[in-house]
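User: Before I run my own analysis I want an independent prediction to cross-check against. Here's the chain; please return only the structure tokens and, at the end, one sentence I can use as a sanity check.
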Amino acid sequence: MKRRSVRTRGAVTAGAGLVMLAAAALALPSASAAPGDDIPDPMTAVNAGQLATTLDDDLGSATAGSYYDPQERALVVNVTDEETADRVREAGGRPRVVKHSLASLDEARATLKDQAAIPGTAWAMDPRTNQVVVTADSSVTAENMRRLDTVVSSLGDRATVRRSAGTLRPLIAGGDAIWGAQARCSLGFNVLQDGEPYFLTAGHCTQLVESWSDARGGSEVALTEASSFPGDDYGLARYTADIAHPSAVNLYNGGVQEISEVGTAIVGQQVRRSGSTTGLHEGVVTAVNATVNYAEGTVEGLIATTVCAEAGDSGGPLFAGNTGLGLTSGGSGDCTSGGETFYQPLTEALEATGTELG
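Assistant: Structure tokens:
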């Protein structure tokens, strides 16, 4: 897991979130469990994510990514040799022999970072194609596009490039939800540290806002305590008002989804996102460990999805059933024509801030 510096304001404690956008309770999968322990076959996407995390710890770079096959209800793990394939089978996964190793794909990503970190671009390893998929949005100029094409061509069939009609941006704007003087965002998850209530949201939101309200022009309900952006995209705010902070997500239909687990997203997983601008939307995870080059700076290690989002949805929760997965960072497109979005993994935000859901 990458480490980033976290800007703090005062002591960083943990906490809860606003009533309007609910939270989740911490139950991290055990990293010490033996591969395949308690993993059913066929398995759910959450089970597959747990097994993928265990295999990553045990096999490391011997695998070349993994994804969930919802039709077969199985974890598919890319490998480059039969010995690793046997170990994947023993653990409960389904091995798939591919051309490019993880080391080779990581080398391609490093080349992109060194030579093509152009604002308006993003890239992630797609385990289903065994390639690094590079996206260039509509803001990339013809000159920069030629530069990007040259770099991608030098990587051979390890990488491919596609254009996006939208513009990659952090999703921040004015409106309703959690308010500051400079921005309006969405609450992610309510969290606790030493029993004290805080909430997590996007770091590009807490960088702009010190004092938060639950209504435009309303009284203060929370103060920003920590921010990390760019590099990562998470922020922590401490409740200063005595308000409820349930471990649930607003479904924008009069109901809520209780959150009782924390999980790791996996490619192919069906997910939902809640946000104060566009409400509830769903889609599929398309990549993990994605890199996005916003105009404000580069953010790495993100979850990429087909879920749409718009300005003001920033910081809102990504989840699957009762499992919290991430915080809305940014994306391109909208919820009318469609788009793609990126999320800060929740596990990393919790660890970095020393908090737990509750």
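Sanity check: The first helix runs from residue 45 to 59.
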